[in-house]
Amino acid sequence: MPAEEQDPDHPRKERLQRALARAGVASRRASEELIRDGRVTINGQVATLGDRVDPTADRVELDGGRVPLDPALRYYALHKPAGVITTVRDPRGRSDLAGFLPSDQPGVVAVGRLDRATEGLLLLTNDGELANRLMHPRYGVEKEYLAGVEGSPTQRHVARLLRGVDLEDGPARALSARVPARAAGRGAVRVVMGEGRKREVRRLLAAVGLPVRRLVRLRVGPIRLGRLSPGEVRELEPDEVRELFRVAGL
Question: Residue 186 and residue 70: Cα distance in Å, rounded?
Fold first, then answer.
């Protein structure tokens, strides 16, 4: 940090506009405009030019949404391949997440789980507060899946998915469901869920008469799998992280 940016009484503090620029919110000059317009707060108080923040302790918000400033926090999206266990180190020696996690970022863990056969989007972070919010059913963060199924899905199946069924661990239903165009004559269903109990999507589809052949998670909240190839990892963009904070009520 340049000497002119340091606060001798609080070495970890830096100018607010510099912290916003470093977090990818906007350029330093554009960040100054955001502050002048009263759109930025520090610990609930409207910020002014010249304010300094401790990125590891102060809560900074832009337009009411939290801006993560701690440079130690990391957020990633992984396309988990089928056959990989959602754990960092599997004691039984099965394929796990160890080979996909950044080696220089200790403490990064998976947000929730995908069963071994399921592939698709898995979020990774060392931000425990955000991870807990995204996993907790209270916040209803949406997860979208594409399921290849046995048989031919109909609107009657869709209606049952939306109405819900009783599973052994309680009722389950899709927030939305639709039958996309068929591929090579095989049936497929897209479903959006608001919670993520163990193998819930597979059990729900089986209960309405559509056993799953292949299951891919396409989306978690605002983050989409997109063009990520199996085994590929990318770091989330700052605006994507802010959107995750928004849907998690942070």
Answer: 47
